[in-house]
Structures are given as C-alpha cells and as structure tokens.
Request: fold
Amino acid sequence: MITFPNAKINLGLNVVEKRPDGYHNLETVFYPINLQDALEVNRLENTGEPYRLRVSGSTLDGSPEDNLVVKAYTLLSDAYSLPPVDIHLFKHIPTGAGLGGGSSDCAFMIKTLNEKFRLGMSIEEMEKHAARLGADCAFFIQNQPVFATGTGNVFERVSLSLADYTLVLVKPDISVSTREAYGGIRPRRPETSLKEIIRRPVEEWRDCMKNDFEESVFARHPEIAAIKDKLYDIGATYASMTGSGSAVYGLFRNRVENVSEQFAGCFCRQREMI
Ligand SMILES: C[C@](O)(CO)[C@H](O)COP(=O)(O)OP(=O)(O)OC[C@H]1O[C@@H](n2ccc(N)nc2=O)[C@H](O)[C@@H]1O
Ligand SMILES: Nc1ncnc2c1ncn2[C@@H]1O[C@H](COP(=O)(O)OP(=O)(O)OP(=O)(O)O)[C@@H](O)[C@H]1O
Reply:
C-alpha cells in the first residue's frame, strides 16, 4: 500500500506559555500543502526481522529505530499483533524546515497500518497514538486546516480556503532545531487571537499575523529574514517562516516567473494551494 504524506505550513504561531513538563502551549493554524513524501508498506515475508526500512530521495540522519515511521510501527506493535513489514520511504520534504515532514510520515504510517491490517482504530485513537510520537504528528491524521492549541494537539476546524493562492516555498541550507527555537522564546499571549485574525482578508495578515519564532531565528540567521523580505519584494500577499523554520513561504495571487533563479542555492518549490 502506498500513501503520500504531505507537508504543512503554520499560518501564524503564538507561543503562549511554558508548561510544567517543559513543553509550550501554542496557538497556530495548521494548513496542509502540496509537497509530499511517498510511503510504501508491504508485508515482509520469510526474513525473521520485524521490519525492514529503506529510505531513498534525500538522506536522513539517525538509525532506522530513530525514524518516526518505525517508531509508529513499534508503538502500535505493543498494542496490536502486527505482522513484519517492509517499509519504503521516499523523502522529498526537507527536514529541519518546520514543514512537519517526519510528523506526517509518522501519522500516515499509523493510518496505513490501521487500514492495511484492519486494526479498527477511530480517528481519536489514531490522534492519541500520533501525539505520543511528536507534537505535530496528530494534525496529519485528519490533515484539514485547523486552529490548534495545547502543544499543537487540540484542534478546531477552521473554514478557510487558500485554493486561489499560489505557494512559493523556500528552504535555505540551514537547519533549525525545534528544541533550540523554543529555548529562544519568551512566551506571551497575543493581544488579538489568531482565531480572529484568520477570518480577516489575507491582504491584512502582513500587519497582524505573527510567527513568534521569527524574532530569535531571524536574529541568529539573517539569511532567513532576507528570504521573507524578498518574497514580499516579488509580490507576496503574505509571507512567513513556518513552524520553527528554516523554511519560509509566500502566498501569491499569481504564479511567479523564474522563481528557482531568484532563490538560487535554496530548496525552492511553487505549488497551487489546496
Ligand atoms: C514548531 C512546531 O512545528 C509548530 O507546529 C511544533 O511545535 C514542533 O513540533 P515537533 O517538531 O513535532 O516537536 P517535537 O519533536 O514533539 O519536540 C521537539 C522539542 O520542541 C520543544 N517543544 C515542542 C512542542 C511544544 N509544543 N513545545 C515545546 O517546547 C520540546 O523541547 C521538544 O523536546
Ligand atoms: N521519517 C522522517 N522524516 C524526516 N525526519 C525524521 C523522520 N523520522 C525521524 N526524523 C527526525 O526528525 C527530525 C525532524 O524532522 P521533521 O521533518 O519532522 O522536522 P521539521 O521540518 O523541523 O518539522 P516540524 O518541526 O514542523 O515538525 C529530523 O532531524 C530527523 O532526523
């Protein structure tokens, strides 16, 4: 069975407070985008191993046990009797980008195992398992635009469509550690809730919709700030870093000419919004 785990962007991100467990409560809107990995899962016959993982496309650090698709398999193996599986992951979504690529792979692995081996899990059960493996994972179970609170695991559907927009996504060759990015933030509640801002026209977002990670990440990496400025220079209606970076996106009313040349040296993609 093959699925195509997609990336997300954050529309606004307010880090609201630090929790006693060291994590942070936030407010953000998660929005799925058209940039995908591919994940194939088949039964593994006659090898005696519980799983085999092959990764192609871009390379990933760490051993197979560190991969979130294997972590998802191992977690579900504790609760259900699963046969050995042969996993092939084609990585296309850049990591350390704030695009949630690993989290999406993880959630799609849970959905695949549920369907393929008829585990009978409800959406809520799958979200609960996913949330144990990473703050961003649960969103990808339903994969619909949501206003998220808690650590990013409490969802409220938002009726928002950006389907009229073109997305330009730019990821410089810089990886930002999510843990470090949270360390650089002084949490505070925003004056105007993102839930209200998201209802305003996209043209107004530039003046009021913020990603709290930008201040400290831009101070450390001015190259990332320069990408955002350039996206506005070439006509973006709204531009922002996504998650804890380092990818930056622009929403445009029209397609942009020669976009790869404008951001030479960066991973750069242009896509219609979903
Ligand atoms: C920045 C976001 O992408 C926004 O969507 C997410 O909050 C990050 O989610 P993620 O990459 O799935 O994060 P995890 O792998 O669960 O956590 C990495 C590290 O980030 C910090 N972390 C993460 C999420 C959160 N709500 N508060 C935190 O303080 C913790 O130090 C944690 O050890
Ligand atoms: N299947 C996977 N794909 C990508 N990274 C993975 C995967 N499994 C484990 N990881 C590890 O997780 C780390 C973060 O990957 P991921 O792509 O989710 O982060 P990100 O782009 O910062 O997204 P976000 O912070 O929004 O979740 C990487 O350093 C990588 O080593």
